[in-house]
Structure formats: structure tokens, C-alpha cells
């Protein structure tokens, strides 16, 4: 018999769940304070725990951490009021499997949620989710950050809350949004993408909200907007940071009330569209600079997902390459070991999108009959980066060789029994200072492609100091 723990300081809540679940054959235990909770999890094992977020002598996240430390396999659901949804999302990041909002208005949904976590099909559902992610192109792989991101995305996908995705250009924010849509309850409804930075403000307003016939010059017929077309579905607003302040005001109204007007229209229209927004900008900084509304950020940032750049998940390079080779119908190709090494050492400023373009390029250039993508089929920028890395390795070797030699020499003086000249020791220390300083300057100079101003700034020194360290004291 599966055992369930209910942690809530209101006795009525415990009685409610006891009545709801005991008739289903579950063993229910209740706790109304931290001490009772601690005692129960130390004496009994549980399959599921429902923990209230706000408690007189503790809080849900603290008890969740305590539970996960004591019984890591026990599934946990946080119970929260609407005003603490953002805190509940923090609980998801700390190991909670889900959260439910109080009061429990939809009992059918509540029972379905509990049955799901107590079902033996729960694990197989995770397998199906991973397969769906791969089909869509959302590569999870072995990277720890991507696995945590996928778990959190899966948990919040089924909630009717807005999501903000942050990440560098080309990291796959649109793919993550598509993944969330397909594992949500809206999967059979429209998923529509729009880039807020690619459309002029006047056209963007019409695209989002539609327009009436004759609303402006060229409006020869009525047009439905995306909020109308995507009703009950998902709208992905890419580069939301590029939206004008005027559009931001209208988006805020939709998020607050679910209402909007067509351009030139007077009738209030309703929408049940879920918003997933994405940006490569720092929106907090944009708020400080008065280019983004703080109240809109508050509405969008209910859940924030940060997708890491490709360079921080490079251990899954082969997975991305195999997926992209299949996508361009070139699965017969493989990248040579040398090509892979060059790609792993590249910084990927364009991220996954840049990698896809390189795969397409290689598939188009490979000679007929060849199956191996050697470095000659890679772009020059990757090869130059490889040569730069070789230079860096040489510089590192020279620096390490000097440090090793100096250390060996100074230790021999220390361990020796003969008299020494202190001036010789101090001269050697000054030589170390000089060579170390020069080495760090050369390394920074190389990183900034010879730009001395940027090099000096990065080292927090003046250009005069930089010249001195480069032994250019007499040069202008």
C-alpha cells in the first residue's frame, strides 16, 4: 500500500486529503508542524508528500529539502496560493515534482495529478518526453545544465503560466519553446512564432491583434491577429526586448486581462493564449534604461529558463552533429577526429545555429564518394581559431617552463649550505615579477587581437604600464 504524507498546518486540509485518498486504498499520514513532519519522515518511508508552502514554524522549500535529503525517491508536490506561484517555481528547482494551487477548485484535475505521480507509468512518461524532445530537436544529452533545464521545463509546461527564456543568440530558444508547447496541455492547439525585432511597430500591432477593414491605408479587408489565431494555443514572442514601448503596453493589457482590441476596432476581444517570451538581452538592465516596462517584465518573468550556450555543453557535440546530419539528409557522413577536436576548441559565438550552418556547408562541399568530413571542409574561422589555440599552447609551455626553471633555481639556493648574496636573490625575484607580468600582458594582448587599449583595460592598468611590461619603456 502506497503511503502519502500531507504537511499542512490547517487540520481541515489533512482531513480533506484523507477523505479523498483513503478510499482509493492509500495510507495517509498528516503533520501540522515541522516537528511532526520530521518525526514521520524519520520513522516511515513515503511514496508522495504534499507540502504547504506557507507554515507558521517553517516553509515549504525548507521541508522539501529535508524530505529530499532523507528520502530522495519520494515524489513531492508543493501546495501554494496564487500569490506565491513564483516561490513554488523555486520549489520545482529544488526537487519538487509539481505544485498545486489552493483552494482546490478543480477536484478532477487534482485527482488526475495525484494519480499520475502514484502511477507506475510515471517513469515511462519521462522516456516518452525525452523521445519527443529529440524529435523536435531539443537535444538534452549528458550536459547537467541541460538536464536540469529539461526537468524544470517539463514540470512547468502543464501549468497555465507565462515563461521567459533567456539565452544568447542561436542557442535554441525557439526549440525549447516548441518543446514546452508539445508537452503541455495545449499540444494539439496552434504554436505560433513571431520575432518582435524583425517587424516594424505598425505592422507588429496588426500582426498581433489583427485589424478591421479600413483601419488604415492598405487595410482592404478584415485580418485576424495572432492572439485570435493562437487562442488556446501558445504564442512564442522571440526577442521581446526589441518590442516598442507602445507594443509593450498592449501586451501588458493582454497578460493582465486576456483582452485586446483589433486595430481600428471597438469591440473587446478575449484570448486564452499562453505566452512564452525569449530574449538575448538583459531585461533588468533594459528596465533601468527605460527601454522595457518593469510591470511587463514582472508579468512575463513568472518562470525564467536560461538556456546555456553551446560552448558550455560541448560534451554533446556528437549528438548535435548526428541530428543535423540527419536533418540535411547526410547521415552517411561523419566528422573526423581532427575536425571534432577543432570544433570542440571553438567558442561558437553563433551557438547551435552556427553549428547547423557549418554542417549544411560541409554536407554541400564534401566530394562525391567521401564519407569523412576532414578539416578542409570546415570554415576558415574555425581553422584560424585552431592555429590560435596552438599558439596559446606554445605560450603556455614557455611560461610553465620559465616558472619551473625559476622555482628550481630558487629552491636550490634555499636548500644550499653555502653563503649567498641576498642581492642575487632579490634580483631573481624582480626578474620573476617582470617575466610574469609580461607573460600575462602578452596573453591578454593576443586575446584582444593586438588592441592595446582593450588589453590595458582588461588588466586594469594604463597603456604606459603596458608598454613598460613589454619592455617598450622608451617607445611612444
TrEMBL record:
Keyword Nucleotide-binding in record? yes
Task: Report the Pfam families cross-referenced here.
Answer: AAA_lid_14, Response_reg, Sigma54_activat
SMART domains, alphabetized: AAA, REC
From the UniProt record, give one GO term of the biological process aspect.
phosphorelay signal transduction system
Top-level taxon of the source organism = Bacteria
Q: Which UniProt keywords apply?
A: ATP-binding, DNA-binding, Nucleotide-binding, Phosphoprotein, Transcription, Transcription regulation
- Sites where 4-aspartylphosphate occurs are at 52
UniProt-listed InterPro entries: AAA+_ATPase, AAA_lid_NorR, CheY-like_superfamily, P-loop_NTPase, Sig_transdc_resp-reg_receiver, Sigma_54_int, Sigma_54_int_dom_ATP-bd_1, Sigma_54_int_dom_ATP-bd_2
GO function term, MF aspect, one:
ATP binding
Q: Where is the Sigma-54 factor interaction domain?
A: 139-364
Q: Where is the Response regulatory domain?
A: 3-117
Q: Which protein is depicted?
A: Sigma-54-dependent Fis family transcriptional regulator
Q: Which organism is it from?
A: Lysinibacillus antri
Amino acid at each position: 500500500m502506497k503511503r502519502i504524507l500531507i504537511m499542512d498546518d490547517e487540520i481541515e486540509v489533512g482531513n480533506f486529503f484523507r477523505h479523498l485518498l483513503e478510499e482509493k486504498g492509500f495510507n495517509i499520514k498528516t503533520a501540522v508542524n515541522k516537528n511532526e513532519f520530521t518525526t514521520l519522515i524519520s520513522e516511515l518511508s513515503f511514496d508522495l508528500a504534499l507540502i504547504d508552502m506557507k507554515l507558521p514554524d517553517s516553509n515549504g522549500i525548507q521541508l522539501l529539502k529535508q524530505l529530499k535529503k532523507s528520502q530522495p525517491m519520494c515524489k513531492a508536490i508543493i501546495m501554494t496560493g496564487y500569490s506565491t506561484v513564483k516561490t513554488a517555481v523555486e520549489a520545482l528547482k529544488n526537487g519538487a515534482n509539481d505544485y498545486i494551487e489552493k483552494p482546490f477548485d478543480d477536484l478532477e484535475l487534482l485527482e488526475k495529478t495525484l494519480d499520475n505521480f502514484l502511477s507506475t507509468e510515471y517513469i515511462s512518461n519521462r522516456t516518452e518526453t525525452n523521445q519527443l524532445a529529440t524529435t523536435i530537436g531539443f537535444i538534452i544529452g549528458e550536459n547537467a545544465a541541460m538536464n536540469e533545464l529539461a526537468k524544470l521545463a517539463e514540470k512547468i509546461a502543464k501549468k497555465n503560466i507565462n515563461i521567459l527564456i533567456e539565452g544568447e543568440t542561436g542557442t535554441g530558444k525557439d526549440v525549447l519553446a516548441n518543446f514546452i508547447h508539445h508537452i503541455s496541455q495545449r499540444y494539439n492547439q496552434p504554436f505560433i512564432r513571431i520575432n518582435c525585432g524583425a517587424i516594424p511597430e505598425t505592422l507588429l500591432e496588426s500582426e498581433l491583434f489583427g485589424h478591421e477593414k479600413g483601419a488604415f491605408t492598405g487595410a482592404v479587408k478584415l485580418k485576424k491577429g495572432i492572439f485570435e489565431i493562437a487562442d488556446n494555443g501558445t504564442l512564442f514572442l522571440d526577442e521581446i526586448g526589441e518590442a516598442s514601448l507602445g507594443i509593450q503596453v498592449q501586451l501588458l493589457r493582454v497578460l493582465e486581462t486576456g483582452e485586446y482590441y483589433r486595430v481600428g476596432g471597438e469591440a473587446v476581444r478575449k484570448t486564452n493564449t499562453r505566452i512564452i517570451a525569449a530574449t538575448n538581452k538583459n531585461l533588468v538592465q533594459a528596465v533601468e534604461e527605460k527601454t522595457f516596462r518593469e510591470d511587463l517584465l514582472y508579468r512575463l518573468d513568472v518562470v525564467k529558463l536560461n538556456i546555456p550556450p553551446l560552448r558550455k555543453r560541448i560534451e554533446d557535440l556528437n549528438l548535435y552533429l548526428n541530428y543535423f546530419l540527419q536533418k540535411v539528409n547526410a547521415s552517411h557522413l561523419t566528422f573526423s577526429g581532427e575536425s571534432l577536436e577543432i570544433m570542440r576548441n571553438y567558442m561558437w559565438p553563433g551557438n547551435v545555429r552556427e553549428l547547423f550552418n557549418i554542417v549544411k556547408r560541409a554536407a554541400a562541399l564534401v566530394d562525391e564518394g567521401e564519407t569523412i568530413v576532414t578539416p578542409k571542409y570546415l570554415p576558415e574561422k574555425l581553422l584560424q581559431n585552431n592555429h590560435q589555440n596552438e599558439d596559446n599552447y606554445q605560450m603556455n609551455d614557455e611560461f610553465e617552463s620559465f616558472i619551473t626553471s625559476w622555482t628550481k633555481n630558487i629552491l636550490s639556493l634555499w636548500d644550499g649550505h653555502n653563503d649567498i648574496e641576498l642581492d642575487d636573490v632579490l634580483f631573481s625575484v624582480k626578474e620573476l615579477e617582470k617575466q610574469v607580468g609580461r607573460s600575462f600582458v602578452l596573453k591578454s594582448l593576443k586575446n584582444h587581437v593586438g588592441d592595446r587599449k582593450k588589453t590595458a583595460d582588461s588588466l586594469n592598468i594604463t597603456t604606459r604600464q603596458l608598454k613598460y611590461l613589454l619592455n617598450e619603456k622608451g617607445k611612444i
